[in-house]
Amino acid sequence: MRPAAAPLRIAILGTRGVPPAYGGFETFAGEISTRLARRGHDVTVYCRKSLYRGEPSIWHGVRRVELSAVRHKYFETVSHTFLSALHVLRAGTDVALVCNAANAFALPILRVARIPVAINVDGIERTRRKWNAAGRFVYLAGEALSAEFADALIADAAVIGAYYLTNFGRRPVMIPYGSQFSTASDTDILKKLGIEPRRYLLYVSRFEPENNPLEVLRSFLDARLDVPLVMVGDAPYAMDLVRQVHAQSTSNVILPGAIYGPDYETLQRNALLYIQATEVGGTHPAMIEAMASGGAVLANDTPENREVGGDTVQYFDVREAASLKTFLRRSIDAPAMLDVYRSKARNRAHQLYDWERVTDEYERLFRRLAR
Questions:
Q1: Minimal CA–CA distance to 146: which of 109, 121, 116?
Q2: What is the pLDDT at residue 284?
Q3: What pTM was estimated for this model as a whole?
Q4: Average confidence score pLDDT of the chain
């Protein structure tokens, strides 16, 4: 039996890689891997070669392994994860963490090699409108494979945990997503975008149907506010929707594309109001990050968003055209009310969604699996 304090060899696969340059799972991989490495563990994160140019093989103490992937909406993730799993088989690994239920086909491969494996299933992704019948089937199969073959099933929201318990009879380990914003000074991103602190609204998400960028844009335009809307995000496989967002935008809408790192943190800290319009998924990282940064959050009223925000967030119904417009006007007219929400949201994020505590829980899980 491995001594309790011995370092572990940990592999993280199923993301686009690190340094983070896309979305929630990539940020998760970066935050968890670097913290585990600082604690003395040997951590490897598998990265998609096409997304990186000239990155070192060691990043903040984390080993990066770049592998190829088929550049296609339906095959890019699974092809990269398949190659990653084959690499893990010969790498000498104590425990593997797979991200996303779509990658659950890799679980039997790892289990046959007797490598303890956990999977973070994310949300109920098959309900996204972008997937055709084949795509929805892949996710449904992934959910079943996750429940059957993972040594540990991980959910970041109680709603997702209840779904797996009800449908597959498997109770996931509950570990939340994290947040920990830098205390560094603001960058010059506000100046570059031509906006002022507390004088803009912020929307951050991939431009996909379930994230409702068009609905947010139209409600903002209907509200006729005197502050701009900054819409941060992109979607390489939803270009029709991206084009619609750009076509319907006005001079009061700023579309800078995807933004990460200090510039992103600066935008979150200084927004007058952050809009979370997602319908599908478990815990949404950008919402937690907005709360942790001291942002005032206005979120679509879903069980997942209420679980994260509690009474520290205001809620609207994205299915009702007038709902978001009404909340936007009301919020703009009540800055003191927004300050109250900011304080409450920051406290909640720091109490429930701290990256160090999240890493503690993953480390305990990995040690248990490795035994």
A1: 121
A2: 84
A3: 0.85
A4: 90
Nearest to 216 by CA among 283, 273, 267, 261: 273
CA atoms within 13 A on the CB side of 238: 22
176: pLDDT strictly greater than 50: yes
Is-cis flag, bond preceding 56, omega within 30? no
User: For position 122, what pLDDT does the model report?
Assistant: 81
Q: Which residues contact 74 (CB under 8 A, 6 or more apart)?
A: 134, 135, 138
Q: For 140-151, how does the pLDDT look when each residue is reduced to its tens digit (9 = 90+)? A: 888 999 999 999
pLDDT value at residue 125: 65
Query: Residue 61: exposed, middle, or buried by beta-carbon count in 10 A (0-12, 13-18, 19+)?
Result: middle
pLDDT > 90? residue 370: yes
> 175, 101, 97, 98: which is closest to 144 by C-alpha?
101
C-alpha distances out from residue 111 to 118, 218, 366, Å: 10, 49, 15
For the chain, how many residues are written? 371
**Confidence check: pLDDT of 3 > 60:** no
